[in-house]
Records
---
Amino acid sequence: MELNLAGKTALIAASSQGLGFAIAKQLVKEGANVVISGREEAKLKEKVSELEALGTGKAAFQTADITKPEDIKRLVSYTAETFRTIDMLVNNAGGPPAGAFEELNDDAWIDSFELNLLSYVRMIREALPYLKQQGGKILNIASSSIKEPIPGLILSNTFRTGIIGLSKTLASELAPFGIIINTIAPGRIATDRVKHLDQVNADKLGVDIETVEAQMKTAIPLKRYGTPEEFANVATFLLSDANSYMTGSAFLVDGGMVKSI
Ligand SMILES: NC(=O)c1ccc[n+]([C@@H]2O[C@H](COP(=O)([O-])OP(=O)(O)OC[C@H]3O[C@@H](n4cnc5c(N)ncnc54)[C@H](OP(=O)(O)O)[C@@H]3O)[C@@H](O)[C@H]2O)c1
């Protein structure tokens, strides 16, 4: 199978750690050039050194808060100026706060809309002129909540499904330009975000985090959390030339956790 990623350029939003960074690592290993981003310069500098040490594709970073349109414009221009083109755009964001409906005010809803849905719209809009030049790939990171709402995460349950509507519509609108767009939906992949959510649940139930993790794992047919590398393997395939006929689709990486057909 030919991935043909060597020499191609990927811009990955919100990628200083966790799932976004795991994708950056896999792409660099395959010889792609990658721009990672996040809000903390020191963290990004350290992570770029880690990518450079892999010794294959090139890596660069740009600080950007993806809730700010001017930061998104700067991030996209920086990528195009640094590597002359953009072949792949990976949309990602921090997770929204946990909370039930009656615990969340308008500010929480607006913030999550801007972070988890509008930032994807803005990233695509800015990157589109470059992606259109020779075709390319867009990959949106969402959540298993696109298939099955997660209790206590109403903001995720609401805005991640918006990504699916956006992606499915753009699959038709962008196909004439040779642009393929898909969504990848993690179930429980072991990152800081999942640790944070497990701690929130543990605090709510008055138990320790290990108890919550053990309960979560029993509900997953493969009986464990996924690793960021396992998630990145699927993302890398979807971004590569090997994926030439799947667009507008959503793919769960969840160890079988979601029970819907
Ligand atoms: N891990 C899972 O199994 C899982 C499951 C379902 C959904 N998800 C979702 O998938 C996404 C990534 O998950 P993860 O586990 O990789 O999370 P993570 O470990 O918390 O990483 C989040 C990344 O987003 C960056 N970020 C957060 N807010 C940002 C902002 N406003 N502007 C720019 N960058 C920002 C963070 O960097 P800085 O803080 O330095 O900016 C960090 O690099 C999240 O939305 C999460 O909710 C994950």
---
Amino acid sequence: MSFGGKTVSDLLQGKVAVITGAASGNGRAMAIRFAEEGAKAVVVADVRDTPREGGATTVELVEELGARAVFVRTDISKRADVRAAVAAAAEFGGLDVFVNNAGIVLFEADPLATTDEDFDKIVNVNLKGTWVGSQEAIRDWTERGVPGSLINVSSIGGIQGSRGTPLYSTTKGGIRLLTYALADAYAERGIRVNAVHPGIVDTEMLRSNLAPLADSGVDQMASIPMRRPAQPREIADAAVFLASDLSSYASGSSVVVDGGFTSSM
Ligand SMILES: NC(=O)c1ccc[n+]([C@@H]2O[C@H](COP(=O)([O-])OP(=O)(O)OC[C@H]3O[C@@H](n4cnc5c(N)ncnc54)[C@H](O)[C@@H]3O)[C@@H](O)[C@H]2O)c1
């Protein structure tokens, strides 16, 4: 199918999704890919509506593809905000897919210099935010007695310890285990819970960390067998898989999209 000169498929025909952090980067690419695959509506749940990388808003791009979209100002660490995002999905007919994508990174060259404030900030967003998003999505599905797909964006830092970002790794490892635990708890109710582990992705998050990483002697590109970062769309394709019936028997899975990073020495 073609819409506005773009090819549109139907892997997510009629689905309603909430994607946190969808104003920018990976979440924005997911919103676009979901619309391309026929999603009915996307709720962009972010602290900002404009993309960090500039350009049109995610809502504008999704609507251009023929899907409905709404921005709901959401800090994922605040339960009332997350509830409002789920309520916005109800307006479109009800939540089918919830993506816990929003996250932040802190560069910590010296772990001993990391403050309690740093700890609280990153744990609040990455770990508590993912926990709250998971709870509110699953609460909605269980109360309505419907199936759902919960997708948690972890990182290769959730699989291996990462130099320069120990706190980030701590939160991303927590997200991996949270995924496994929730997958087990809700599988019988038809709720699938899976994780995506991106490698190095060409987004503003990466760009803002390249300089401090290079300054501390970490050459991330040299560690990638494919010798390039991922494009956000390549991460979004994994989310399309996990959101769709293509992954109907996958729950508690870790989908690693890292150009070979974690499997090489
Ligand atoms: N870029 C990478 O190299 C990389 C690698 C592995 C994993 N990831 C993960 O991918 C996810 C998206 O990262 P990205 O690279 O697209 O980053 P990004 O900074 O480009 O985009 C993140 C988006 O999240 C939003 N956000 C930040 N804090 C929020 C909060 N409290 N509530 C709601 N929204 C908030 C930002 O406003 C922004 O729009 C993150 O979970 C990140 O950890 C990224």
